[in-house]
Specification:
Distance between the termini of chain B: 46 Å
Strand content of chain B: under 5%
Distance between the termini of chain A: 15 Å
Oligomer: heterodimer
Shape of chain B: globular
CATH architecture of chain B: Orthogonal Bundle
Keywords (chain A): Cell membrane, Membrane, Transmembrane, Transmembrane helix
Order of helices and strands of chain B: HHHHEEHHHHHHH
Membrane topology (chain A): Multi-pass membrane protein
CATH class of chain B: Mainly Alpha
InterPro entries (chain A): ABC_transp_permease, ABC_transptr_urea_perm_UrtC, LivM-like
Helix content of chain A: over 70%
Radius of gyration of chain B: 19 Å
GO molecular function, one term (chain A): branched-chain amino acid transmembrane transporter activity
Structural class of chain B: mainly alpha
Protein name (chain A): Urea transport system permease protein
Number of helices of chain B: 11
Radius of gyration of chain A: 22 Å
Largest sheet of chain A: 2 strands, antiparallel
Order of helices and strands of chain A: HHHHHHHHHEEHHHHHHHH
Shape of chain A: globular
Chain lengths: 381, 294
């Protein structure tokens, strides 16, 4: 598999000559490049395109979690839309209440429209507090994932069973939201969000600020996920993915290892959902059901599920392709999306990222072959 | 009392539809450990077969009778083709199969949209299946009774095939121990393809049944597929008995809950019930005893 080749803790202890600078050279260079690219984007892109990029970056944040849980942990998380939605709705509920307070109303506009009784539902009330709402965007998805994961992994329900259960969860949440028209906006969702903690979202400057927040969160989470990947926990996670029984026989509890990956991925999806709301201005059941939930996995699958950068770039590329192609050629896009899944997952399980490693290996091979005359024959990559 | 009975009958008829869909799934899932998300599109293929047939055969009753075997063949052929093209290359990666077949299902849906148009279409039910019969104050819709009968007939037929024929014996052998079956001289690949043909064909039959109770559209399969998978998971993979009990159980639970609460709450409660059930029996209602660790 495409594990990162940076030295682990044990080797760096054994070889003190590997300096801190050396250890973080590659990721550091990558980080610098990413910061430059994301920083230049507002200068060259129009406000409209920048807004779209902010949306894609939200999907990329989900992909970081998918890469952790699915790429490294082997947990096919088909219900990330649930956590994305919980985070998004928590944020949108707060912003709707703040919008209403700005205009001197007590109820969000859609509740007045649907003729709900003039009292705010009790479970909306705490969301008026920004700190509470922000905490809920991350903690509620993590709590739900922890509960489901604990129950499911403890009883060794795994593989396809887990995938189907997480998918059913996504279906159930979106159906429930649609059913609660009066308090959740039903099929429409929570729309038309004007302000973001006192800043008007109609101002392009503030939109740029939202973009920078999203970009910064993405880079931070990627850095955190990378540290997780190269830690001992990351190695254990891969071991659980590849041979769960063996890990159990070694004395670890695979259920806990998987639970951590699932919960962290859920928290990331929740945060992505929360950031999605100010960037796009809407959250609705159509964004979190079965189809978008699988969509979260598609990007990671195409880019390379086990490679962090691959998964993130894949998510951005697929989201970009979707919004450019689906408007112009809706039919062609659906065929292409299906074909991408079949080709990437079926025939290139490492995603596009594995092509990079493949090419690099081939190049080093051709470079070393002439000098190493005793090289074994028959290796044609 | 009659309300409860009426609601139970609704539940049983929901269960019959689920059962028809889950039968094929449990067969392919049980034998190959493969999750076929395109199963829903085979349902759609069966439904559109009925629709096309009705354009050439004006008698609704006759076209329905012809549609049943024809839909079985059409959906079965699609399934066998899918198995031959993709799934047999992915046996060792069941989770990836799920995503690959999802991709296939996206393409098939779009294909249906291109051929038949995005709006739903409708077929005419035969006169015999319109209307109700009343038994002890309970209203039984004829079309629902027909679906129930069809589902039970399919269970019976499948059980007979599995129990009595040599093909059934080979299928059971592969399900129980693939390696041992192979060294005993069973052509497991051929058995796989036949199983996939039968399983997908049953989805086609389910599609014909669904034309009696709802519209035909490109996304009709996705509405049922997740529920059908839950039936398979709870019933125990590859277990007909488990699927029958679970399908009717979930159907009745769903409709009783829908009556006392709302559709959306019922869905959530059923899901919670399933997770709780898996705490008690993580391998499903019935399990196949093997020495495998997985």
């Amino acid at each position: 598999m495409t594990t990162t080749t940076s030295p682990t803790k044990t080797t760096s202890v054994a070889q003190p000559s590997v300096s801190l600078l050396e250890r973080f050279r590659v990721p550091g260079a990558f980080l610098l490049g990413a910061v430059l690219l994301l920083g230049i984007a507002p200068l060259v892109l129009s406000d409209f395109r920048l807004n779209l990029l902010a949306k894609y970056l939200c999907y990329a944040i989900v992909a970081v979690g998918v890469s952790l849980a699915w790429g490294r942990g082997g947990l096919l998380v088909l219900g990330q839309g649930v956590f994305f939605g919980l985070g998004g709705y928590a944020m949108a509920m707060h912003l709707k209440l703040a919008d209403a307070a700005d205009t001197g109303q007590t109820l969000p506009d859609f509740m007045q429209l649907y003729g709900t009784s003039d009292a705010l539902p009790w479970w909306w009330k705490p969301f008026a507090n920004p700190a509470f709402a922000l905490a809920v965007t991350v903690l509620l998805p993590m709590a739900v994932a922890a509960l489901l994961g604990f129950l499911v992994f403890r009883r060794r329900v795994k593989g396809a069973y887990f995938a189907i259960l997480s998918q059913a969860l996504a279906a159930a949440l979106s159906i429930w939201l649609i059913g609660q028209q009066a308090t959740t906006g039903g099929t429409n969702g929570l729309t038309d969000i004007q302000g973001f903690f006192g800043y008007s979202l109609n101002d392009p400057v503030n939109q740029r600020m939202v973009y920078f927040i999203i970009a910064a969160v993405l880079l931070l989470l990627m850095a955190a996920a990378r540290q997780l990947f190269v830690s001992r926990y990351g190695e254990l996670l891969i071991a659980v993915r590849d041979s769960e029984e063996r890990v159990r026989f070694l004395g670890y509890n695979p259920a806990n290892v998987k639970l951590v990956a699932y919960v962290v991925a859920a928290g990331m999806a929740g945060l992505a959902g929360a950031l999605f709301v100010p960037a796009v201005g809407i959250i609705s059941p159509a964004l979190i059901g079965i189809v978008p939930s699988i969509g979260f996995v598609v990007g990671a699958a195409v880019g390379g599920r086990a490679s962090l950068v691959g998964a993130v770039l894949g998510a951005i590329a697929v989201a970009w392709a979707q919004s450019t192609l689906s408007d112009a050629f809706p039919a062609a896009w659906t065929y292409l999306q299906g074909l991408l899944l079949v080709l990437a997952v079926g025939f290139l399980p490492g995603g596009l990222a594995s092509l990079v490693t493949l090419l690099r290996n081939r190049r080093t091979q051709t470079r070393t072959t002439p000098t190493a005359s005793t090289a074994p024959t028959g290796e044609t990559a | 009392m009659t309300v409860i009975l009426n609601q139970s009958f609704t539940g049983i008829s929901i269960g019959a539809v689920l059962l028809l869909i889950a039968l094929g799934l449990t067969l392919t899932f049980g034998q190959m450990g493969v999750i076929n998300m395109a199963h829903g599109e085979f349902i759609m293929a069966g439904a559109y077969t009925t629709y096309v047939l009705q354009k050439s055969i004006s008698s609704a009753g006759l076209s329905l009778l012809v549609a049943l075997p024809l839909a079985f063949l059409v959906a079965g052929a699609m399934g066998a083709l899918l198995e031959w093209l993709l799934i047999r290359r992915l046996y060792t990666r069941p989770l990836d199969t799920l995503l690959v077949t999802w991709g296939v299902s996206l393409m098939l849906q779009q294909l249906a949209r291109d051929i038949f148009g995005a709006p739903n279409v409708q077929t005419h039910a035969p006169d015999l299946l319109i209307g109700n019969v009343s038994v002890a104050g309970v209203t039984l819709a004829n079309n629902r009774l027909f679906i129930l009968g069809l589902a039970l007939l399919c269970v019976l037929g499948l059980t007979l095939i599995l129990r009595l024929t040599s093909l059934g014996r080979r299928i059971r052998a592969v399900v129980q121990n693939r390696d041992l079956a192979e060294v005993s001289g069973i052509a497991t690949e051929r058995v796989d393809r036949t199983t996939f043909f039968i399983g997908s064909g049953l989805a086609g039959v389910a599609g014909v049944a669904l034309t009696l109770v709802g519209p035909i559209g490109p996304t009709m399969g996705t509405n049922y597929i997740v529920d059908a998978f839950l039936v398979v998971v709870v019933g125990g993979i590859g277990q007909l008995k488990g699927s029958v009990i679970t399908a009717f159980g979930l159907g009745v639970l769903q409709s009783v809950l829908e009556y006392s609460t709302t559709v959306s709450v019922a869905k959530v409660v059923v899901l919670v019930a399933i997770v709780a059930f898996l705490q008690w029996r993580p391998q499903g209602l019935y399990t196949l005893r093997t020495r495998s660790l997985a």
